Amino acid sequence: MPVKSFEEYLEKHLKWKGELQQLRTMLLSTELEETIKWGAPIYVLENKNVVGLGAFKNHYALWFFNGALLQQNTELLVNAQEEKTKALRQIRLTENEKPPISSLKKYVEEAILLQKAGKKIETKKNKPLTIPSELKEAFQNDIELQTAFNKFTKGKQREFTEHIANAKREETRISRLEKCIPMIKNGIGLNDKYRK
After folding, report:
1. What's the number of domains the chain is made of?
2. Do 152 and 102 sit in the same domain of this protein?
3. Which of 89, 100, 108, 193 could crosslink 77 through cysteines, CB 3.0-4.6 Å?
4. Domain residues for 72?
5. Residue 126 falls within a domain, yes or no?
6. pLDDT by residue (tens digit) across 25-62?
7. Are residues 152 and 100 in the same domain?
């Protein structure tokens, strides 16, 4: 079941319950509004994503959707996926770290000011879609699959192609393809379950 509230998110991440509650309190002390997107708490300003909370096995994090634009508060920021994410940055905290609320609030306040100013990193549009060889071969053997794939938006097509292509081992690419085929044929996007 997809998460529908902050409380449900906490129930799935009890290890970080206290830390996440502290971060939430800090975020709600600003003008940001809480919502749930992609199964996680996201804090928005005029429906624009500013900050998100994340909990993982070994750390919890604050995500800044336009974190690459922060200039005054940058020391704690990391790019989770070099070469992939242009704007998104995060601050990772571990078990031994209490959330430094006053420091973190400065990052959030700068992110809010950037959002109010309309600052954002432009993403490249119409980047060519590269279809992995495994998917090309599947299209040749199944015209229904290709027809269904072509009905998706470019963005959803890219999600499938990158998901398959990004696997390092051939067995993993084939396994991912096999899981994607029924989704494609049924018109279900790879990440639809995370969308509201």
Report:
1. 2
2. no
3. 89
4. 6-116
5. no
6. 999 999 999 999 988 999 999 999 999 999 999 999 99
7. no
